Amino acid sequence: MADSLVIIPTYNEKENIEKIIRTVFSLAVPFDILVVDDGSPDGTAAIVKNLQNEYGGQLFIEERKGKLGLGTAYLHGFQWALGRHYGYIFEMDADFSHNPLDLIRLREACLKGADMAVGSRYIKGVNVVNWPMSRVLMSYFASVYVRFIMRIKVQDATAGFVCFSRKVLEKIPLEQIRFVGYAFQIEMKFKALQYGFRIEEVPIIFTDRTEGVSKMSTRIFREAFFGVIQLKVESWFKKYN
């Protein structure tokens, strides 16, 4: 039985979901997968359910009604994982922008002492493939902005490829996490640091999706911009222990 769970949120990922599931299950290290599907009208959930016949006991799906946001999908997955035996819980996209092989490297970082391992696009230069320059600059300077406002050393604060040791998710009050997009990723890292956990960044190459449609929007970016200030101000009045 695997001690590691990969949470994959989905909304209209029929082009990618079977391939990503089969790739994760082909890795040398065993991982279980939980797909959290937000009522995809394209049949994503049906593909996962069909694969459950092949990967019984390793592949799970939680279906939600409506598009409720990336952050709430991960929070749903975290609570699901904490109700079970998993020691390591991962966030990963369905579209191969995160290389499944790097799951092993993130897990190894936590096995060697990190409380949270982040697949970082910016720890060794800028390692992004197939993004337009405008998107690269926006993402890079978003992390610079986060470091400046929050006074943290995480180079890729908006990264969504993450391994949590179980104790991190048990300590952070998940019911108090409020953001749903990029700001969710920032909030989880900031809270982990505030509670005294050690974050290690693992260099990865991020490759933009080749199939399916990006879920990025100006609303998500705006939430992150103002959310950073809100989180920092609130931290001045909150005790973490």
TrEMBL record:
UniProt keyword list: Glycosyltransferase, Transferase
KW Transferase (keyword) present: yes
Listed GO biological process terms: glycolipid biosynthetic process
GO annotation, cellular component aspect: membrane
Domain Glycosyltransferase 2-like: 6-172
CDD domains, sorted: DPM1_like (cd06442)
Source superkingdom: Bacteria
GO MF annotations, alphabetized: dolichyl-phosphate beta-D-mannosyltransferase activity
InterPro entries: DPM1-like, Glyco_trans_2-like, Nucleotide-diphossugar_trans
Similarity remark: Belongs to the glycosyltransferase 2 family.
Protein name: Dolichol-phosphate mannosyltransferase
